């Protein structure tokens, strides 16, 4: 079985020996899934770390098969799909945690929201999809496996401990400032929800009956935080601040969100996201880095002073 080279490299990089073993069993696993669900799988899509391919049932229904390494990541995505289920997200038609497989509703034609030429229209479409993602309120008693906004704060704190002089283009002062913002936001959060966790242009697909979100990662936190990944994607080479301001305005108005908290999450997460992308060769995501100062500038223009002295 010929597998995409990039897919093999990614799986091996992220999952090490377990990934190598999983790749070796994949051909047999595919046959087992086809037999169990009475389907015939087609040629896979462009792959990252999961094997995803269109399929057709013996009754002629078109579906999508997603095969993952069994484990926490698979369970979180499946739990998120179930928690967020409704008109705005792709539906789960079947699953098997032992095999690490999900049979999903196929969204056709499947164009991503990144194909939309109008910035305003793209934001309005995303807002309408997000309105349908009705994640449940999370209390302290909820026993959920999802990552949380507090975990993101701790991730940044650990990075600072490991890189006391700063990370790439991020100075120690910048990292400390972002950590203080994360701490403030988490300490002042009143309601936490189950969130999509990876809501952006490439995870919103056009269907025959409207747009659908796909590939939730599952995250617990405020809804304002869930829009930041969208903010950081599909940005122009120039005029980033103006685009961010338009997105902030549309999302806060359409979804009744707190504008200041959205901007603060944007600032804190863009620092974290930039740090995540820094590599051994000194490379990093330039757009993520540019948004840091843009979020702070917009906040200062509206609030008059920075949150952290």
Automatic annotation (TrEMBL):
- Please provide the Gene Ontology terms (biological process) for this protein: secondary metabolic process
Q: Which residues form a coiled coil?
A: none
Per the UniProt record, the source organism is Alkalihalophilus marmarensis DSM 21297
InterPro entries associated with the record: Kinase-like_dom_sf, NH2Glyco/OHUrea_AB-resist_kin
User: Could you cite one Gene Ontology molecular function of this protein?
Assistant: phosphotransferase activity, alcohol group as acceptor
* Pfam families noted in UniProt: APH_6_hur
This chain belongs to the protein called: Streptomycin 6-kinase
């Amino acid at each position: 079985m010929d597998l995409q080279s990039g897919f093999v490299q990614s799986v091996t990089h992220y999952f090490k020996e377990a990934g190598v073993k999983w790749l070796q069993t994949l051909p047999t696993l595919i046959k087992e899934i086809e037999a169990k669900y009475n389907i015939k799988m087609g040629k896979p899509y462009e792959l990252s770390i999961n094997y995803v391919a269109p399929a057709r049932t013996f009754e002629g229904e078109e579906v999508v098969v997603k095969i993952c390494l069994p484990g926490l990541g698979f369970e979180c995505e499946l739990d998120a799909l179930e928690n967020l289920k409704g008109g705005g997200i792709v539906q789960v038609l079947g699953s098997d945690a032992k095999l690490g497989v999900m049979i999903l509703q196929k969204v056709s034609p499947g164009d991503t929201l990144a194909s939309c030429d109008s910035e305003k229209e793209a934001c309005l479409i995303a807002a309408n999809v997000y309105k349908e993602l009705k994640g449940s309120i999370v209390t302290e008693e909820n026993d959920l496996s999802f990552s949380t906004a507090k975990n993101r704060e701790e991730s940044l704190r650990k990075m600072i401990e490991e890189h006391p002089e700063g990370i790439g283009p991020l100075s120690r002062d910048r990292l400390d400032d972002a950590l203080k913002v994360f701490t403030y936001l988490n300490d002042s959060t009143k309601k936490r929800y189950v969130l999509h966790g990876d809501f952006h242009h490439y995870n919103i697909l056009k269907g025959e009956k409207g747009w659908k979100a796909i590939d939730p990662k599952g995250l617990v936190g405020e809804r304002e935080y869930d829009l930041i990944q969208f903010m950081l994607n599909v940005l122009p080479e120039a005029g980033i601040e103006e685009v961010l301001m338009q997105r902030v305005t549309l999302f806060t108005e359409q979804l009744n969100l707190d504008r200041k908290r959205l901007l603060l999450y944007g600032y804190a997460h863009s620092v974290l996201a930039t740090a995540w992308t820094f590599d051994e060769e000194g490379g990093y995501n330039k757009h993520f880095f540019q948004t840091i100062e843009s979020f702070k500038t917009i906040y200062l223009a509206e609030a008059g002073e920075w949150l952290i002295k």
